[in-house]
Amino acid sequence: MPSGSLVAATGTNDQEDDELVTTAAWSWTGPNAGDQRGLRPPSKLLWLAEYRAIWELGFSLTATPLLMTAPRGDGHPVLVLPGFLVSDVSTTMLRRYLSALGYDTYGWELGRNLGGVRRMRAKLRARLSEIHARTGKTVTLIGWSLGGVYARDLAHAMPAAVRSVITLGSPFSRSRNASNITDIYEMVSGEGEWDDRMSDRHEFDAIGGDLPMPSTSIWSKIDGVVSWETSVLRSNARTENIEVVGASHVGLGVNAPVLWAVADRLALPEGTFTPFARRGPFAIAYGAAAAA
């Protein structure tokens, strides 16, 4: 889609994989899971302050002229995965913005996200395979919250189809206390606590571990839904963390500095990786480079 106004623009054996996964809480496991056992959910004050997402949306609409000056890439396909309990509607602004920058952008088209990594795995792989086959190009995966867990699981399963992975406020901790909505997730998705099998540990450790392609985790220290520590990945030659100061969890997909950072990462030439440069019109909104 040509440039324009942000407002106007609009593999593997599934049975064997399913046998590896039984149940898991919404809070996943990263490389530092052992250090995260004492995590607590964000405070109720931060939880209540999530309403500020409305102001983040308003600011982004006002900042459209600045956002349209973001770096531009080669227009490759991008698949955007929504968070828990929401649908493609929640990612409309993000997808329209990326389309306005020239990217071939796709929603997941699977309705409301009711959770369940095991249950959604086959459908997500089919969706990625469809886009990869249709375009003949590798696909960048962008996942918001639980959508980011799906994205990294997809990247591990289908690396030949994935160009890069960007997650927004996605939790990668085994601690069920790392989220304010773990109980709701377990009730809706049917997934419970870890049964502690070694196969399950290996499977979900991989989700928060290293990927064979560039990956970026974007998060906020005042996230009111998940503890920000659970979103921090172990940095390496192709993995980075970007803190966006003041962002809400609910507003990550409409936050102007987040949108700019996503556009900047998408503009990287395929097969290359350079760390995010904290400059540009929203430079003040980025925390210092984080080491996991």
What secondary-structure arrangement, pairings included, does this model have?
Layout (H helix, E strand, L loop, with lengths): L13 H7 L23 H5 L4 H10 L1 H4 L9 E5 L10 H9 L3 E4 L9 H19 L3 E6 L1 H12 L4 E7 L13 H8 L8 H11 L6 E5 L19 E5 L12 H11 L26
Parallel strand pairs: 1-2, 1-3, 3-4, 4-5, 5-6
Protein described:
This protein is an alpha/beta fold and 292 residues long. It has a single domain, classed as Rossmann fold (3-Layer(aba) Sandwich), CATH 3.40.50.1820. It is built from ten helices and six strands; from the N terminus they run H-H-H-H-E-H-E-H-E-H-E-H-H-E-E-H. The protein has a six-stranded parallel beta sheet with strand order 2-1-3-4-5-6, with helices on both faces. Strand 3 (139-144), helix 7 (146-157) and strand 4 (162-168) form a beta-alpha-beta unit. Helix 6 packs across helix 7 (146-157). The radius of gyration is 18 Å and the shape is globular. Mean pLDDT is 85; it is low at 1-35.
- The count of strands amounts to 6
Question: What is the CATH H-level superfamily?
Answer: Alpha/Beta hydrolase fold, catalytic domain
Summed up, the domain count is: 1
Number of helices: 10
For the largest sheet, list the strands in their spatial order.
2-1-3-4-5-6
Q: What is the fold named in CATH at topology level?
A: Rossmann fold
- What is the SS-derived class? alpha/beta
Give the averaged pLDDT, no decimals. Answer: 85
Determine the strand fraction and express it as a percent band: 5-15%
Question: What share of the residues lie within helices?
Answer: 25-40%
Q: Return residue spans where pLDDT drops below 50 for at least 5 consecutive residues.
A: 1-35
Helix-strand sequence: HHHHEHEHEHEHHEEH
Any idea what the radius of gyration is?
18 Å
Largest sheet: 6 strands, parallel
Tell me the overall shape: globular
| CATH architectural grouping | 3-Layer(aba) Sandwich
Through-space gap between termini? 37 Å
Question: What is the CATH class?
Answer: Alpha Beta
